[in-house]
UniProtKB/TrEMBL annotation:
GO terms, molecular function: tRNA-uridine aminocarboxypropyltransferase activity
Family: Belongs to the TDD superfamily. DTWD1 family.
Organism per entry: Lepisosteus oculatus
Protein known as: tRNA-uridine aminocarboxypropyltransferase 1
Keyword tRNA processing among UniProt keywords: yes
């Protein structure tokens, strides 16, 4: 398997700003903001995001009152943002927080994932410089840098964040011991050492050739899969992901209003997984005090949770 350079990787989705044009917002419109559907939540007052240090939701509240708009790129009916074009719609971009993440994030999106149900767009809009979204089967090659990449996905071989850095260090050791292994033909045996080569006067072996600079296990990139749990098998079994260390967030519980029945409540939506990973990485791997640095990753998610929970409660579905 040959690795691509950064220039060979698929170009990332870009973020655009679109003022939008008004469309019908009548109660007969099933996609009107006055009639959100498919949501589940808690009674108002029990909203779990009250402690977030996030930007104010005023801009989203104004956009909600203004009604749904048409995206100026795809002409789709949208509220707040276009999940197809990754563009803001009808909101002032200066009031939307921008976040700098400590790691690069790759999101591998299933081609059959419904765009309107995905929270991957939240990450791209809020951290555009650090988040890239790929649509499967488009996946970067991670082989040469697998000691610097983690795949966040639950499974029998997954490790915790506390165990992650130690496991990545083992990959560095393995690579340094066999640096040419992946380039050597299976029919080409390693060169034999000449008699006396690399031996010191006392007979002990010593290095006689220059060594490559020692690599570190510094994590640089995290991969997330954006898909319904029933569709993930096709992506997670792809050979390009097999060498990656899998990390599971075992102690976090989802607040997603579209949580799939029959799956554990520790199975998170994409934006929740990114948020909790960054938060835990900051504390447990960087050993720094968390002061809300990544809380704005839940800027859209927390607002939609509150909006949908209120709608469900008022309709008697809670």
């Amino acid at each position: 398997m040959s690795a691509h350079s950064a220039a060979d990787w698929p170009k990332p989705e870009h973020t655009f700003v679109c003022p939008g044009k008004p469309i019908s917002d009548s109660p007969d419109n099933p996609r009107s903001p006055r009639a959100p559907s498919g949501a589940a939540g808690e009674e108002p007052g029990t909203e779990p995001f009250g402690d977030l240090k996030r930007a104010p939701h005023d801009v989203l509240e104004r956009a909600q009152r203004a009604g749904r708009l048409k995206c100026c790129k795809c002409r789709g009916s949208r509220m707040f943002y276009c999940y197809t074009c990754f563009s803001l719609v009808g909101v002032n971009p200066e009031e939307i927080p921008q976040i700098k993440l400590p790691l690069k994030v790759d999101i591998i999106k299933h081609p059959n994932e419904t765009d309107g149900k995905s929270t991957a767009v939240h990450a791209k809009l809020l951290a555009p410089d650090d988040v890239t979204v790929y649509t499967y089967p488009c996946i970067p090659e991670y082989e040469d840098n697998k000691h610097q990449v983690a795949l966040v996905f639950p499974g029998p071989g997954s490790v915790t964040i506390e165990e992650m850095m130690g496991q990545l260090s083992k990959l560095v050791v393995k690579k340094s011991r066999y640096p040419l292994e992946h380039n050597r033909s299976s029919e080409q045996p390693p060169q034999k050492r000449l008699k006396g080569e690399g031996n010191s006067e006392d007979g002990e072996s010593s290095a006689s050739t220059p060594t490559e600079p020692e690599e570190t296990s510094t994590l640089k990139r995290v991969v997330f899969i954006d898909s319904t749990w029933n569709q993930t098998n096709k992506i997670i079994t792809d050979e390009r992901l097999q060498a990656l260390l899998q990390v599971e967030l075992k102690t976090r519980k989802t607040c997603f209003w579209r949580h799939q029945k029959g799956t554990p409540d520790t199975y998170l939506s994409t934006i929740e997984a990114i948020y909790y990973f960054m938060k835990d990485y900051h504390v447990r791997c960087l050993s720094q005090q968390y002061q809300g640095q990544y809380d704005n990753l839940l800027f859209f998610f927390s607002f939609l949770y509150k909006l949908i929970s209120k709608a469900k409660h008022s309709s008697g579905k809670l």
